[in-house]
């Protein structure tokens, strides 16, 4: 989705920090914990670059962090 948004808006993506809840103490380690994740991700990035004809992703240093830690924030 970041490819499409960056291609259409010509703006970098924005990282939004998730709110960690105590109710999910046995969460899955995630895709990046798998040994071949980065190799497969690089292959996907190259495929998207070929589809778009370029890499529309732009460098960004922006991060949004909810100010109400653990509270329900509209739109988050």
Automatic annotation (TrEMBL):
Q: Which family does it belong to?
A: Belongs to the glycosyltransferase 47 family.
This protein's species is Pristionchus mayeri
What's the protein name? Glycosyl transferase 64 domain-containing protein
Would you say which domain of life the source belongs to? Eukaryota
**What GO terms are given for molecular function?**
glycosyltransferase activity
Q: Where in the cell is it found?
A: Endoplasmic reticulum membrane
Broad class of the protein's primary localization:
endoplasmic reticulum
Gene Ontology process terms (BP): carbohydrate derivative metabolic process
The record's InterPro entries line, in alphabetical order, gives: Exostosin, GT64_dom, Nucleotide-diphossugar_trans
